[in-house]
């Protein structure tokens, strides 16, 4: 069974009363355990496609299934539930909550799920130990380096064991070594635990780590090797 099925998707935005076609007739499948890069220049539609798969937006036309659920016409309430249960997000600017400690940021998704404090803290501490960031748990984001913030963001994205993890330009704000280290770490999670990753990038380091590359241009898929 495919984890993600995107069927003949179109996405049109309205800007100043003008229709802007962001995606045109996109079809794509993602299987469990893939480590897939969406590649293409700025404006090619990578982020728009990620947002649709991640239940952050709806297509104008077409159909999307995630783990057997049709998400393209789901209610906002259902989309919120699907995001909490099945999707992990790693954002380019990390989106950490400034007033929360690293540990509290990592726990956040479990808090939204209604997990009790003791259980969610136990899970967060375990993942911090695994990521090698246990000494950072009491620090707030402003006291963390960019690489440390990114590790906290990754830990938060996977703590609830999502079906799929989505990332947008993960290494854009990192130096070369930190970005390469991050991608090696994500690849290890993919290989050892079968975790599914789909990420948008134009970074050669990230493309090298992918086991599948989907190339996009002008809102279309031009190659999906």
UniProtKB/TrEMBL annotation:
Domain ABC transporter: 4-225
UniProt keyword annotations, A-Z: ATP-binding, Nucleotide-binding, Transport
Tagged with keyword ATP-binding: yes
GO cellular component entries: membrane protein complex; plasma membrane
Keyword Magnesium: no
MF annotations from Gene Ontology: ATP binding; ATP hydrolysis activity; transmembrane transporter activity
Superkingdom of origin: Bacteria
Pfam family, one: ABC_tran
Signal sequence range: none
UniProt record similarity statement: Belongs to the ABC transporter superfamily. Macrolide exporter (TC 3.A.1.122) family.
Record's protein name: Macrolide ABC transporter ATP-binding protein
